[in-house]
Amino acid sequence: MTESPQPLKEDLAIEIEQNVTVSKNHIVDADMPSEPEGNGAKNPNINIDTSVSDHGPNHTTSDGSPPKWGIHEDLKHLQEDDMILAATLVIDAKEGRNFTFKTDPTYVRSYNLYHKFYLRYLLYFMILFNLSLALFERPAKSGWEIPYWASMLLETMCLAFFIYRFLHSAYFSQREVFFRDTKNWLILVVIVLTFIDMICYVIWDNVTHSTRPIRWSRPLRPLFLINFPDGKQIRRAFRNIRRTVPEIMNVLILFLLSVLLFALLALKLFSRRDLVYANGDPYFETYLDSIWDLYVLVTTANSPDVMMPAYDSSNWFALFFIFYIVICWLIFMSIVLAAIYYSYRKNLKNEIKAAVYGKRRKLAQAFDILKVPYGGRQVVTYTVWCELMKRVIPNRSRSHIDLLIRVLDIDGSNMIRKQQFLKLADLLELQLSEVKDRQTFLEQKFPIIYNSFISRIVKLVVRHKAFRYFFDFMIFVNAWFIGFDLDEADWFFLGIFMLEIVLKLYTFGPREFFRVFWNVFDFVVIGAAVIASAIETIEDSTYEEFQLLDYLLVLRVLRLFKIFGSIKRFKVILQTIINIGPSIITYGGVILVFYYIFAIIGMEIFQNLIHYYDYYKEDSPPFCGNSALNGTQFYKFHYCNNNFNDLLRSLVVLVELTVDLFKVISFIPLTNSLLASGFVAVTSKVARLYFFCFHMCCVIIVLNIFIAFILEAFILEYTIQKVGKLESYVEQKIRDLGLGIGQTGPRQRQLSAANDNSELVPNEELNIVEQPDSDSDTESIPDLSVEKGLRFHLKKKSRKKVEVLLQQMFEGEIDPEDEGPENETEIYVDKGPRRLTLDTVA
């Protein structure tokens, strides 16, 4: 049995002269040393023989003459275009892209150009700029409106770029796949409809002056944000919504039928009893009014006002409303949330499956391009690996590349099998730093002073948890002084907190300091407070003229919340809030899309029907400029500023409707909301459909899906905190090799192919110091600058995104080389009933 070479040492990288022979259409090694010999060393002064032994390439010199460089044996089956294609597939797997593109060299280069960061960010800018045009189009704030031809010109510029991106994507995509995608058709249809709308608007505005022209295509603008592939997170959220709605439709239909049935009963019970509301409005006069009143009751906005006239007539009528609330509010609304959560969880798992399988298929395609036969199996050799990495992670050192293959190499042969190659995307996502990356600016520029005895004492004190406890106590004392309005100590506390910031900047360096949220918060608040105090002192401002300092010092007290992160009872809750931060932004974008659509529609329907005037000026027009509001509660309680006369005001109204869809002041007996009733008064009862649709889309569906996400994230976080660590194969291997930040040596546990899976592993007694928690500094923080060599930054399980945790859990359930079904749609197909077990229920 031949002996395998030793694993590559990270400090054995040898720089060689760029003296190569170029062969046409083949890859030539520009700075590549020869394959390592059996002892793990690399010798640049050898000629490369084309024979391959069990040890790898056979390194010999033919006649003792100076060596001649040529094409490596492992690269003869590859051309430059093949390596570019393989690197593109690896980058796709790392970035989570799911494009199906043509593999000819011209199309691959076009595909790589499509994903250039400047084109992607330019697309984001154009989409946001296109959406922001509504701020300056009629109706707009006073002084903001621009001529319609100017806004159309700017919108045409945006559409031209959208067309370019659409055609660019169509060029490199496989035609049958591209035109089978509904999202591409939607982009094309929206562009065409927008141009048609522009033409119609120009004709309408110049031919007919008696009516107001309408830009009916403006609500379609957010569809560009949803359907362009660059917004994959928002697309995924909308895809989840699209798949959830049909599955909960049966529950929504039963709920609406229940409302219709109870409305019919209410009409028969109360319409002929000559009952009226406290404000004189008829009580359940028509069937549509009955439906509306009872639907509002589901939101509890008009409870108990809607019941009181009937209850005053007979106390027994309270049973009708009690039964209605129990059935339609308590039961059906709970079932709607449960159905949405179940559907969301199933669709989320399918999304995770599709992401994992898509990543593996990309890496498998790259492996098939790069592989060579060796010892009866297909592998990627060290030479091919180095060429690949130079394209995937350019400008990285040879030591960096060698360390990556060391993690994936299971037997020390400097070759990677397919099973390990499929872990490459996970490996590339981990941060790998060198010594200079972990040194602070002062340590690099003034190493003698920074590493002196006194400096080491200062750094030791700052890194100790007692340092943080002391300043947390000072924050508490400062809060006490603020609460009792003792301003004399403001400069003392500002000086103390400034000293804390300076010491942290000195110890951690600016780069590490500003990575922690609370450090950034402290720096901004205290820095602004110092500036505000200085201005207040210099200009001798009075308390009434300058109150910014008090606000800033009060914000400082919020830092006490981080102390709760060290308390076990609160840790899961706070950690869930931190981990769902990125997804909150995603769902915020989803809600913004719905807000924008309904805001534009509301502007077209209700614009200039309600105006705001100073209520206390004698010459101000009464009733919000509309006599239809005379005597209404909408005007009585000064709601005139809640209107749809521009985009910003429209968004504010929708936020108010979301917080409490039908805004009601509890002590006012109203059948309708103050907001809805005002717009109904100036139009007709048909306007209720607008508020009903908004409630259905944004409250019942979108917000419930967001709640489902919160529930899933909390359950996942709670489970992981209770069970143990969730480590991928790559993280396990890094810990075994002792290559993680804070490890003092390799973990003494052999990793075989049999446990090449992600799994929940119990906490072990390891000689490891975890990477410091990025959002809690209540424990002592190790000095990472003392780490030697290249080190991986392994995140705690609590620092991983929910999606990453779910992917690691799913990868542990499937075969290491399983690439999923050939047809991706099969992932979303229900496989039918399974055997019922306790695990599937709980």
Automatic annotation (TrEMBL):
Membrane topology annotation: Multi-pass membrane protein
Family annotation (InterPro entries): Ion_trans_dom (IPR005821), Volt_channel_dom_sf (IPR027359)
Region (Disordered): 24-68
Keywords, ordered alphabetically: Membrane, Transmembrane, Transmembrane helix
Any Gene Ontology CC annotation: membrane
Compositional bias per record (Polar residues), positions renumbered to this chain: 42-64
Superkingdom classification of source: Eukaryota
Pfam entry (one): Ion_trans
Localisation: Membrane
MF-aspect GO terms: monoatomic ion channel activity
TM helices/strands, residue ranges: 117-136, 148-164, 185-204, 248-270, 317-344, 466-483, 489-509, 516-535, 584-606, 689-711
Ion transport domain mapped to chain residues: 117-344, 464-715
Protein name: Two pore calcium channel protein 1
Organismal lineage: Eukaryota, Metazoa, Spiralia, Lophotrochozoa, Mollusca
